[in-house]
Each structure stands twice: as structure tokens, then as C-alpha cells.
Amino acid sequence: MGEKTSLTDLGLELWILVYHLYRKYNNDPDAAFYELALRTRCVRRSDDLFLARSPSSLKSTQWYREMTTRYGALRQRIKESHSEVLQEAETVTRSLYPAGCKVKEYADALQTCAAMLTVSIPGRAIARFSEYRVQELASRAIVTVTVDELLSDLIERPLIDAMTPSQWWSLDPTDDDSVLLKSVGLCAHPSQIHIHCTCSGKFRCYHIHLDGILHDRGPTAQLAKRLARTHSTLLSEEQFRTYLVRLQSLMRQVAEDGGRRHTSSSTVNDPSREHAYPQPQYPQQDLSSVLAAAVDPEKGAKAAHRPLSAVNKADVGLLYRDPEAALDNVDLNDADDVTLQEFKAKMEERFLENVLRPGDLGYEYDKRVEVKPTQRSEWDDSD
């Protein structure tokens, strides 16, 4: 992955995330783009898979065009909602540097104007942008900068960047093709978090199983951190911790009431509100099917994966994308508690799909099968 590309038009944070994922999945660009689309709440389109082989090729994808539109719309909303800050920046800049400044004074001028504003701008961000901008001006043999150029640079880069929310791509997008969180429900017995979301305009529901993992008076910080690592596209670590604490409260109520079922749900914007958790009026799906739909709108489409080794590590991301491949000879010895519960829930679901019950075609009561071993085993030797 030797080539480089500039994604500063999408913000430095997203640029860092892109390179991190492609370095993490160095030999598997499909997996890198899967996770990138999931984290940025974009539908993973099959056409993009052929193009998104490296960070430098992302600019030709529909994902990039969608993210550019979302980022531009977000920055425009920031400008409209902080018009008084922009006016302050203009007043300060024009009063301090009415005739502009020389290129060699550019960094100090930008730093001085930023320091006079009521909005706090990180010094490292100003220094980083100033260094880039001075090099660009020098390469074009420009020796002076007008006040309009100085003002535009101050507003468009350091100022708007400072007011742009961290991980802006996880905010609720306005298009119908993205994964959008609607509400979160809590179930105390068994302990579960139910997450309602929309994907491509359709309602979805999936469950995070915490029975045996979360205790009514145990710590929640580490569990919230682990959940955020695998489900950060829908809930942040702080939100997970809030819901875990509320779930613990419900668990204590269940214990006090003798095991009676307690449930709760709330919208994301009002995590303190509790009421009876209603049964959804749409088909419930498990976590893997929901996230598979979130990244692949084509039903039945399977991602191309590398050949599986004899024993596979527990990969939650693969469980979302291709449960069959994830469960094939999986080794759960090193899996953490949350990952273990996810795999056990999926295994139980697959078992129930294949079990034959009385009345099913092929069901036979007390079926006995004679097994003829094809090779000798020391375990079969009698003493």
C-alpha cells in the first residue's frame, strides 16, 4: 500500500480512519471497505468493491461521492448555525490585517486571528494547516496574502474544522440508504440490548446478548468499551455505558420482584425516558442479517473471502458479513465474553433452523444409525 491520497476534503479524522482500516486489512481490501462502509453508515455497493482496492481509489466510488455530499451539507449547516462566530472572525481578521500579510507572516497572522475568537481552535490544527498552506503558496511563488484570502483560510479550515463534531460520519445521515439508529430497548431477563434501526428505509431489530456477562452491580466501563469496538456504528462507548447502567437497574428490579420480566426502550436522543418495551411491528432479524443488509443491499450476495484455514479465529465482523464462513471450524478459546455470546447465539439459531420436530418431513422417533468408522482411533480401544 505504497500510494497516498489526500482525503482532507472529508476531514483529517476520516482520512486517518481510511488508512487505518486499509493497513489493518493489508491483504484484504474487501474487508477494509466492508468495515469502512459500516462505520460510516453507508450501503456497501457491489460496484464499489471492484474500485475500492486502496485509499487512493476511493475517490472513484459512490461511497466517496456520498460522503462528500454529507460532509459538505454538515459544514454548511455549521456555517448557518454559527453565523455570529463567522461574523466575529471577519471583524477580527479585517481589523488586525486590513491589507493582508506576507507569506512569511502567514502562520503568525492565522494564529493571532484564531486566538482572538471565542471559539477554541487547537494550536496543533492551526500549525498543521499553516505549514501546508505556506508550502502551497511558496510553490506558486506568491509572496503576499490578501485579507479576503486570510479570512477564507481561517473560516474554511481551522474554524469550521474545530466546530465539526468528532467522528461526524457517525451522525444521523439524511439519505434513506444509510443505517439509522431509531431506538434502544433493554431486556433484563435474559439480559439483552435490543437495537432498532432503519437500513435502506426498512426497519430492523437486532439483539446483543449479555446474559452471564453483565451483572447487576458489576463494572460497566470495560464492557462498554468492548461493545463500542464492535457496534460503534450505532452507539458510542458513552451511550453503551448509559444503557448498561440502566440495564443493571432493571436487573435489580427483576430480582426484587421475583423474576418478573422487565423491559424498557427509549429514543437515542432521550436515554433517560423509560416505558414499556413494545413488540416491533416489523420482522425481527438477528445482528448478522441486519449488518449484512446494512453493507450489502443485494439479497443473497456473498462477499469473497480468503480461503479458511483449518481453525478460524472468532471474527465478529465476519460473523456479520458471512455467518456460515465465520462459524466454520471456529476457535472460541481466545474470544472475549461479548464475542463468545454473539457466536453462541448464532450457533443456537443455526441449530434450531436444522432441528427436526414431530410433524416435520423426515422426522423419525428414536432414530438409530449404525456408524462404520473409516479409520482406527485409539479412543475406541476397549480396556
3D structure, described in words:
The chain has 383 residues and is an alpha+beta fold. Among the domains are: 12-168, no CATH class; 180-258, no CATH class. The chain has 14 helices and eight strands. Strands 5-4-3-6 form a four-stranded antiparallel β-sheet. Strand 3 (179-188) and strand 4 (191-199) form a beta hairpin. The longest helix has 20 residues, at 62-81. The chain starts with 11 loop residues before the first helix and ends in a 29-residue tail after the last helix.
Please supply descriptive tags for the structure shown above:
383 residues, alpha+beta, 8 strands, 46% helix
Give a quick rundown of the structure.
By secondary structure, this protein is an alpha+beta fold.
